[in-house]
C-alpha cells in the first residue's frame, strides 16, 4: 500500500522572532529599535503576514494527506521522503536552501510577502495552495526542472546547490590553488584570488550576475533550465607564480572545473549557507560540474 502524500511546509524564523529571542520581550525589542530611529511595527507586520501565509497553506493541505513543518535551520537534519510535496513558504532563497536536500520531490513556492520578493522561485500566493497541492501530485503536472551545481572532492565529499557554489577562504585571506578545466586544451594555471564562484542559470539572477556585471563580461549567462554553468574567479592576482589567464567561462554537461588546493584551508559552500561547508586542505582537489539531480519546481 502506497503512503498518502505528505506536505512538508518549509519556513524560516522571522525577523521579529529573532528580535524577541535576542531581547526577550516585544517592549524591549521596540525600545532597542526606537533608540536607533526605527520602529518595530513594520517588523511585526511582516511577521504576521508570514504566519498568516503559513496558516493558509497548512489549512489548504488535503484532509487525506499528512503534513509536517521544518524550519530552515533544521533542513540538514530532516529526512525527506519520496512521497513528499515540499511547500516552501517564504522567500526565493528559502527554495534554494531546501533544494540540495531533495531527490526529485515536487516543490511549490509560496510567496509569504508579495511585493518584497522577486518571486523567481516562490511564484504563488498563499490562497492558491488549495489548488496547487493536489495538482503537484497529479499525472501531467507541469514543472520546471532547474539545473543544479555540485562539488565533489577527491575523498568523495559532495555538495549540491541551486544557485552557486563558492570555493575560497572562509575569511579575507588569499586562496591559492591550481585551476584546470576538463577537456580543455588550456594547461592548468596556478592562481591566487579571493575565491571562485560556479553557478547555474537560476543563480544568474544573484551573486553570479553581480560578478558578471562588475567585470562587464561578454559571457552569455545560462537560463535556469540550461544544463550549463558559468564560473568566475574573484580578484585574481598576477604574480611571478600565479596567473590571471582563466578568470571566467562556461561549463557544458560532463565538463568540470577542477581546483587543487594550495592553501592551508579553503571551504566550499552553496547558496550562501556557510554552516554547511566542505573543508578543503592542502593538496585536495574539488571538481565542480552540473549536478545529476534537478529541482522540480511546480508551475
Please list the strands of the largest sheet in the order they lie side by side.
Answer: 2-1-3-4-18-5
Strand element count: 18
Note poorly predicted spans.
none
> Any idea what the radius of gyration is?
21 Å
The span between the termini is 29 Å
**Most strands sheet:** 6 strands, mixed
Structural class: alpha+beta
Work out the helix count: 6
Give the H and E element order: EHHHEEHEHEEEEEEEHEEEEEEE
User: How much of the polypeptide forms β-strand, as a percent range?
Assistant: 25-35%
- Approximate helicity band: 10-25%
Q: What spatial form do the alpha-carbon principal axes imply? A: globular
Mean pLDDT: 94
Task: Give your account of this protein's structure.
- The chain has 299 residues and is an alpha+beta fold.
- It contains 6 helices and 18 strands.
- The strands form 3 sheets. It has a 6-stranded mixed sheet with strand order 2-1-3-4-18-5, with helices on both faces.
- β3, α4 and β4 form a beta-alpha-beta unit.
- The chain is globular, with a radius of gyration of 21 Å.
Question: Secondary-structure blueprint of this entry?
Answer:
Layout (H helix, E strand, L loop, with lengths): L5 E6 L3 H9 L2 H9 L5 H21 L5 E6 L12 E7 L1 H8 L6 E6 L17 H8 L6 E4 L2 E5 L4 E4 L2 E5 L6 E7 L7 E5 L2 E4 L7 H8 L14 E5 L14 E4 L4 E6 L3 E6 L7 E4 L3 E6 L4 E4 L1
Parallel strand pairs: 1-2, 1-3, 3-4, 4-18
Antiparallel strand pairs: 5-18, 6-7, 6-17, 8-11, 8-15, 9-10, 9-14, 11-12, 12-13, 14-17, 15-16
Amino acid at each position: 500500500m502506497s503512503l498518502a502524500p505528505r506536505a512538508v511546509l518549509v519556513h524560516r524564523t522571522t525577523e521579529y522572532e529573532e528580535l524577541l529571542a535576542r531581547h526577550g520581550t516585544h517592549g524591549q525589542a521596540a525600545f532597542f529599535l526606537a533608540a536607533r530611529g526605527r520602529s518595530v511595527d513594520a517588523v511585526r507586520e511582516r511577521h504576521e503576514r508570514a504566519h498568516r501565509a503559513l496558516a493558509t497553506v497548512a489549512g489548504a493541505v488535503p484532509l487525506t494527506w499528512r503534513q509536517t513543518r521544518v524550519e530552515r535551520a533544521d533542513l540538514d537534519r530532516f529526512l525527506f521522503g519520496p512521497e513528499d510535496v515540499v511547500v516552501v513558504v517564504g522567500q526565493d532563497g528559502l527554495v534554494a536552501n531546501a533544494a540540495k536536500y531533495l531527490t526529485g520531490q515536487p516543490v511549490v513556492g509560496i510567496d509569504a510577502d508579495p511585493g518584497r520578493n522577486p518571486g523567481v522561485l516562490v511564484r504563488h500566493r498563499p490562497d492558491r495552495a488549495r489548488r496547487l497541492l493536489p495538482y503537484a501530485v497529479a499525472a501531467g503536472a507541469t514543472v520546471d526542472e532547474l539545473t543544479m551545481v555540485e562539488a565533489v572532492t577527491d575523498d568523495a565529499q559532495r555538495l549540491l546547490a541551486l544557485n552557486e557554489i563558492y570555493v575560497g577562504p572562509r575569511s579575507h585571506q588569499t586562496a591559492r590553488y591550481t585551476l584546470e578545466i576538463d577537456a580543455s586544451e588550456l594547461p592548468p594555471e596556478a592562481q591566487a584570488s579571493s575565491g571562485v564562484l560556479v553557478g547555474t542559470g537560476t543563480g544568474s539572477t544573484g551573486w553570479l550576475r553581480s560578478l558578471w556585471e562588475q567585470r562587464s563580461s561578454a559571457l552569455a549567462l545560462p537560463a535556469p533550465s540550461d544544463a550549463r554553468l558559468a564560473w568566475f574567479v574573484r580578484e585574481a592576482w598576477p604574480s611571478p607564480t600565479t596567473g590571471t589567464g582563466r578568470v571566467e567561462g562556461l561549463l557544458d554537461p560532463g565538463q568540470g572545473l577542477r581546483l587543487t588546493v594550495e592553501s592551508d584551508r579553503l571551504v566550499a559552500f552553496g547558496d550562501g549557507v556557510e554552516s554547511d561547508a566542505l573543508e578543503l586542505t592542502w593538496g585536495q582537489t574539488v571538481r565542480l560540474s552540473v549536478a545529476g539531480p534537478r529541482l522540480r519546481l511546480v508551475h
